[in-house]
Amino acid sequence: MIERSSLQWMKANNHRFRPLGLPFVNPTFLPEMIRRGTTGGAQELYSREQLAELDRVLLDKLEHLGSDFPYRERFGLSSVPE
Questions:
Q1: 17: DSSP letter
Q2: What is the pLDDT of residues 37-71, one digit of tens each?
Q3: Cα–Cα distances in Å, from 1 out to 4, 9, 43?
Q4: Is residue 33 a contact partner of residue 14, using CB atoms and an 8 Å limit?
Q5: 20 with 53, same domain?
Q6: Residue 52 contacts by C-beta under 8 Å, 6 or more apart in sequence?
Q7: In terms of residue numbers, what domain contains 25?
Q8: Could you give the C-alpha distances from 41 to 23, 32, 34, in angstroms and in order?
């Protein structure tokens, strides 16, 4: 577990962390998901509009699935309309 949670192992196995089925991600594109070993890097890569669209898509999917996952609370989305 310690080995697989290391930045070195995750960078070497980047393919295991790629996003699946996102509407604006080309399925053949393999982005570098593990870059620095810290959270919050999406703001450097995507515009506010893209991040808001992703939140809307994920909230819609969770609702469609009947999930009670507290997405808004977990990711601090008080500004995303219900």
A1: G
A2: 777 777 888 888 998 898 999 999 999 999 999 99
A3: 5, 11, 29
A4: yes
A5: no
A6: 80
A7: 1-38
A8: 20, 11, 10
**For residue 9, which phi and psi values (nearest 5 degrees)?**
-65, -45
What CA–CA distance (Å, rounded) separates 53 from 3?
Answer: 35
Block residue for tokens 């070195």: 8
Helix (H, G, I), strand (E, B) or coil at 76: coil
Q: Total structural domains in the chain?
A: 2
Residue 54 is encoded by which pair of tokens? 């992703």
Taking the chain, what is the end-to-end CA distance rounded to the nearest angstrom?
38
Same domain, 47 and 34: no
pLDDT band of residue 75 (cuts 50, 70, 90) is confident
Identify whether the C-beta of residue 71 lies closer than 8 Å to the C-beta of residue 58: yes
- For residues 24 and 47, membership in a common domain is answered with no
The answer, as to whether pTM is greater than 0.70, is no
Looking at the structure, do residues 33 and 48 belong to the same domain, yes or no?
Answer: no
